[in-house]
Design goal:
318 residues; mainly alpha; 18 helices; Farnesyl Diphosphate Synthase; two-stranded antiparallel sheet; 75% helix
Length: 318
């Protein structure tokens, strides 16, 4: 089970709606390969963090309909799945969480069709809601997701990447989807504009901290738990916060900046070990903690959200 049941939400009902929308879809009935791939994907489960954020936000309002809340939660999960599928294809990722990615199992053609399908299915489910603000939020989010991916590609092996540019990309790739999950939940619950702004800011802060934690783990976790080689981001030329701090150290800077000329595995292994054993990880963790602290401060302005959100923050970061 994912996190939904841990926080008192009806995970069985969530999964029922998710599977019903797949099994009853007329398009999928005409494409057995696509349907099989999607059913396998959703059956893998997951933490369902973005649906959880959305449902938490709906708790703040005047008892919105359960059907509306869970339909939106399924839609945001499908949007998230779409972004993961497209990211894996673009990055040529063979594994995700120790499981072969869709394009490795079924080929890029089926994976791309599935990524497009889950995106369109998400938008179809969101079309049940009349509030134009919700659709503007979705449009902005999808634009930011695309910009974040494009920016990451542009900055491969860019050893002059500035901290503020890295933070902006982290928000685009991760923070924006968490932020919109909270805001859509707030819209369904008919919250005030001030409350919606607080939820948006909260999502921004959580999302950046979550991305920072993931980027730090890329250096500090074991390969078996990552489901990919340690330092995989650096091997692909993706410059993350620990590397940005390492580039400030003249003892390692020159070797890092010549990586695009020497891409032997042993060179990456050596540099990843040096980054992991240096003070760059602690510097990165300090930045991550500052965003966690900011998250906790924002929660004080949303007291009804604080108990569950504090528990979730503890699970995600501790």
């Amino acid at each position: 089970m994912g996190y939904l049941s841990k926080f008192g939400y009806d995970e069985v009902y969530f999964n029922k709606i998710l599977l019903q929308n797949i099994e009853n879809d007329a398009l999928l009935k005409q494409d057995d390969a696509l349907k099989k791939a999607l059913c396998e994907l959703v059956s893998q489960g997951g933490k369902r963090i973005r649906p959880l954020f959305l449902l938490m936000a709906t708790d703040l309002g005047s008892y919105p309909k359960k059907e509306d809340c869970y339909l939106a939660a399924v839609a945001i999960e499908l949007l998230h799945l779409s972004s993961l599928i497209h990211d894996d294809i673009i990055d040529h990722s063979p594994m995700r969480h120790n499981v072969l990615t869709l394009h490795e199992r079924y080929g890029a053609k089926i994976a791309l069709k599935l990524g497009n399908y889950t995106l369109n299915k998400s938008l179809e489910l969101f079309s049940h809601f009349d509030d134009p603000r919700l659709h503007l939020q979705l449009a902005h989010t999808m634009k930011q997701l695309c910009l974040g991916e494009l920016k990451q590609k542009e900055d491969l092996f860019n050893f002059n990447l500035q901290l503020e540019d890295y933070i902006e990309k982290s928000h685009q790739k991760t923070g924006t989807l968490i932020s919109v999950s909270l805001v859509i939940g707030g819209l369904i619950a008919h919250l005030s504009n001030d409350e919606l702004d607080e939820l948006s800011t909260l999502g921004h802060s959580i999302g950046i901290a979550y991305q920072l934690k993931d980027d730090i783990s890329d250096f500090t976790s074991l390969s078996s738990s990552l489901g990919k080689p340690v330092g995989n981001d650096l091997r692909q030329g993706i410059i993350t916060l620990p590397t940005i701090f390492a580039l400030e150290d003249d003892l390692i800077k020159e070797e890092l900046m010549s990586l695009h000329l020497n891409k032997e595995s042993s060179t990456f292994d050596s540099l990843c070990k040096r980054i992991n054993s240096g003070h760059y990880i602690q510097q990165s963790e300090d930045v991550c903690q500052s965003y966690i602290n900011n998250t906790l401060a924002i929660m004080n302005k949303l007291p009804n959200l604080k108990p569950k959100m504090s528990h979730l923050i503890d699970l995600l970061f501790n």
